[in-house]
Amino acid sequence: MPQSNQNPTGNSKAAKFAAQNPLAPLADPFSGIDGGDDAGAELRNEVSNNVQERLTKAMAELKAKHEAGTNERDDPDRAPTGSAYRAVYEEQKAMAMRGRAANEQRKKEEADRAAAMKEAARRMRFAGGDGENNGGDGNDDDGGSDSEGSEYDDLLDDVPDDLQAIRMARLAQMKAAQSERARHISLGHGSLRTIREDEFLSECTGSSRWVCVHFYSDDFQRCKIMDHHLGIVAGRHLGCKFLRMDASKAPFFVTKFRVKSLPVLFVYDEGREVGRLAGFDGLARDPRKPDEWDTGRLE
After folding, report:
1. Which of 89, 188, 229, 287 lies deepest, with the highest CB count within 10 Å?
2. Would the pTM of this model clear 0.85, i.e. be above it?
3. Does residue 268 contact residue 210 with C-beta atoms inside 8 Å?
4. What is the end-to-end Cα distance of the chain in Å, rounded?
5. Rounded distance, CA 20 to CA 13, Å?
6. Dihedral over alpha carbons 3, 6, 12, 15 (to 10 degrees)
7. DSSP letter string over the chain?
8. Do 71 and 64 form a contact (C-beta atoms < 8 A)?
9. What is the rounded CA–CA span in Å between residue 213 and residue 94?
10. Cβ pair 56, 63 in contact under 8 A
11. At 214, phi and psi to the nearest 5?
12. CA pair distance 299, 295, nearest whole angstrom
């Protein structure tokens, strides 16, 4: 019975080759098997060559991925988890950092203004005190000292009032903003909502001035990409109501608005159509990658 070279040992040529290339026995599974007719030998050669080609290709792909550092990265075409959406996440994180920096800067400016007001009040107090001392008879030094101490006391009493005025003004702004936010949320703003065909008119002509409607289909991948971006924009722009409606369940408005392709966006101002976007027209910066674009392009 012939001996197999699947695990060759010793000083034979097969053993030396296996030591240099551990995958060699796997690449040639019929090594060491002889005999049989020509057809069997040809079939074994063909299978061995096919296995060898597959192993070579797999090793080359693994090597290329490791050299490029992309072995564990998502494929950009596999939306919505590809590189384009990671770029959106990085952009959102950068915007949050900029917002925090702006908030710190605003606090610093308010503190600087309060300090400036305090210094201005101090100068005015001292200027008024000097004038009164110069205009007096100068016979009572102790009286002048008491007047100066009184001015210091008045200055200390006035400073908290100035700071309190700034705090009250800021608090009023925050309350107004919170009230406006609550009003918008009560009207259905702040998120992307799905509506039915019979709700379209009441939603677009109700209390909200700005309304954006996405005609979509669950069968279209681009509609899912559009929903992803609209969900982000809806949270940023509370002044506008963002809606989505299944085009297959709204035949009346699809016909009335002559919708020919999906996705399509309609923008309404007090019930009047003021804008329309068909597909991703003008959103992608790179024409070769029409499905990859930043959320900011939609805003």
Report:
1. 229
2. no
3. yes
4. 77
5. 11
6. -160
7. -PPP-SS--TTSHHHHHHHH-TTHHHH-TTTT---S-HHHHHHHHHHHHHHHHHHHHHHHHHHHHHHHT-TTSPPTTSTTSSHHHHHHHHHHHHHHHHHHHHHHHHHHHHHHHHHHHHHHHHHHHHHHHHHHHHHS-S--HHHHHHHHHHHHHHHHHHHHHHHHHHHHHHHHHHHHHHHHHHHHHHTT-SSEEEE-GGGHHHHHSSS-SEEEEEEE-TT-HHHHHHHHHHHHHHHH-TTEEEEEEEGGG-HHHHHHTT--SSSEEEEEETTEEEEEEETTTTT-SSTT-TT---GGGT-
8. no
9. 28
10. no
11. -105, 115
12. 7
Q: Please give the residue that has the higher pLDDT: either 293 or 129.
A: 293
Question: Could you tell me if 265 and 242 are in contact, meaning their C-beta atoms sit under 8 angstroms apart?
Answer: no
Q: Locate tokens 């007001």: which residue?
A: 117
Q: CA torsion sign, 289 to 295 to 297 to 298?
A: positive
User: Nearest CA to 294 among 90, 75, 88?
Assistant: 88
Measured CA to CA, the distance from residue 299 to residue 286 in angstroms comes to 18
Residues near 278 by beta carbon (within 8 Å), at least 6 away in sequence: 260, 261, 264
Residues 168-201 have pLDDT tens digits of 788 888 887 777 777 777 778 888 999 999 999 9
Dist. CA 236–CA 299, nearest whole Å: 10
Which residue carries 């009032």 as its tokens?
A: 161
pLDDT greater than 70 at residue 155: no
